[in-house]
Amino acid sequence: MSILVVGSVAYDTVETPFGKAERVLGGSASFFSVAASFFVPVNLVAVVGNDFGEKELAAFKDRPIDLSGLERAEGKTFHWSGKYSYDLNSRDTIFTDLNVFESFRPKIPAAFKKSEYVFLGNIDPALQRDVLDQVEKPKVVACDTMNFWISGRLEELKKTLARVDVLLINDSEARELSGEWNIVKAARAIRAMGPRALVIKKGEHGVLMFTTHGAFAAPAYPLEDVFDPTGAGDTFAGGFMGYLAGRGGEGDGALRRAIIMGSTLASFAVEAFSLDRLLRLTREEIEQRFQLFRQLTHFEAL
Amino acid sequence: MSILVVGSVAYDTVETPFGKAERVLGGSASFFSVAASFFVPVNLVAVVGNDFGEKELAAFKDRPIDLSGLERAEGKTFHWSGKYSYDLNSRDTIFTDLNVFESFRPKIPAAFKKSEYVFLGNIDPALQRDVLDQVEKPKVVACDTMNFWISGRLEELKKTLARVDVLLINDSEARELSGEWNIVKAARAIRAMGPRALVIKKGEHGVLMFTTHGAFAAPAYPLEDVFDPTGAGDTFAGGFMGYLAGRGGEGDGALRRAIIMGSTLASFAVEAFSLDRLLRLTREEIEQRFQLFRQLTHFEAL
Question: Does A185 contact chain B (CB < 8 Å)?
């Protein structure tokens, strides 16, 4: 089994109440790949500029992450900068320099076309579909998107969703996409657009998943020190898809454990800037925290 | 076993996006008592004015709710009016006519003084302590409060908390009371003030409980039709304390099931105005929905 991920590899400049990190490794495909690589080989497709250094590439080394789809284009690497509020619950974007990412047209290497699991990061929905046109019958296609595409490219997005198995979005995106405020009604409307599983990410309030088997609710792990929330959603997606692909199977039970695994990986990602915590994470720590999620949520029948 | 509850019995005038209810039965002690009465006899202490009618009293009839502590005072009954936003996540208070509740000094009838479980509704913390002075060695004392007392009567409140076993408050109140934004740090600081269990209510995002055994997280039940959130927190408290007193025992497992039972009762309360849904609720419905909470949260170990 292997996972294809298409998304961004970027520089982030982030300020939180606890410090500032300048031009550190970020991007949806970066967080996703490192998280998923704990479970299964990852085929990464993204673009960087000629300013992207060996130091940043080192993050992917010694892991089962195939970089042969990491295109180098003339120009600068995507650079995002943001500043979080004192409570980490909101952030202002200082700047978004798309640079080489602006004209990114994902080209899937021949060796990646048989990837059984595909994660379409948050890019133009027409490009997401273009990726699907280049791969051969994946077993599971998962997809992220954002308000920008929901409000600006809704018809394109709906065509993509018709070909997607799992959609992972946050609660405000689910509401905007469905036009329903109530989250149960929103989930029904979105699942009617195509995805058999809808995963709604609620940050510190956890995750809700809707499938044919009904709803599953998982809390976020109550952390004493949240340092930087950047990349939590992409890390969640990497842990979720990595677990499914590597060990999970396809039933409702596997999807539930995948949600907890995504939440587990995300709970580590926010403990430091950039991918710092993920890069020093061990399998033992992952299994211990997964078990802590059981203690956090378990109760006996009446 | 029996529970003593001290709080408000009131008229509510509520407007939600789905309709309006004028001068219907409300108040913390009303919601609490009806919820708890599914499990254990309830001793109610509150005050109403001479405008309070037989129709409203009928809600408590045919239930194990002892009304001998329901004082009738000269004047009008406490009347609150509020209007909810389109998403039900915020509300504006239209008016708060305290009326006879303003000079409420709880007098605990002799027959109530041996109540093993005590719930101190949201009143002046000095009056809460006055109630504790009137009762004999209760097994469990639980308490609600609000920002008004936290900001205005903090020292009084701290004296009360030193005598409380379980504090039930919402997340913004926990943050204000502790001066900590992070909820884990807030919980530690508040538990150091006295309560061995802290229950943090987060509305549609569920509940977090902190005890010596660590944290327990429960989601809110994802409802398709939330009609009126008024009284959800008091209903939660009633289900929580009722279950503990009636069947629960004292261990961490009992506290966890009590959290789910509180969430179960609250999920029904919001399905209609006032106490309407609670008053037609059956034990079978309660047990079914408790079981649905298991399905909503269960996952297997790795």
Answer: yes
